[in-house]
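Meet the record:
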Amino acid sequence: MVMLRLGLTGGIGSGKSTVLAMLAERGAATIDADAISRAVTAPGGDAVDAIRQQFGPEFIAADGSMDRDRMRERAYAQPQARKQLEAIIHPLVAASIQREVERASDEGRRCAVFDIPLLVESGRWRRELDRVLVVDCSPRVQIERVMARSGLSQAQVEAIIAAQASRARRLAAADLVIFNEGLDLPRLRAEVDQVADAFGL
């Protein structure tokens, strides 16, 4: 049995995390690309020694993790530094994801859901996926939800939205869309169940 690779994405406040949890309840394996990326730069992470060698010990925090703030400043000031960092991190993340995919396949899972916030922005992911599911809602609803849960101002949320791929670009990349606006949880679950049924979950 070939395991389906489903990419899941959506803008901030779209409800992507809720949809991911519902797919997991239906038996999908979930692969969190962001969490894996954070793990390789955490204390004891596989990327830490290479980052120390490439950038110097000042880029390693006291707890042994990559100093994210300092690295962000360097990458912003020197685009080449970001490429050097990605050259260290991306192969490690790819290898870790492959191990998770193999484990899910060994467990007999029908579907692995890749939770990838920057799926549309990153050109490399689309080639590795069979289908892309986008959780969508209007920017107005995104702003309302994020302000309610995080305490950020409207301007701060708008800045986050502006930094992500546009709604049009996300929808253009989608094979399937769940429009998560005006839905209570039971109705959202019904939408997710339809998607899960289509994938044999």
Summary: The longest strand covers residues 4-10. Residues 79-106 form the longest helix (28 residues).
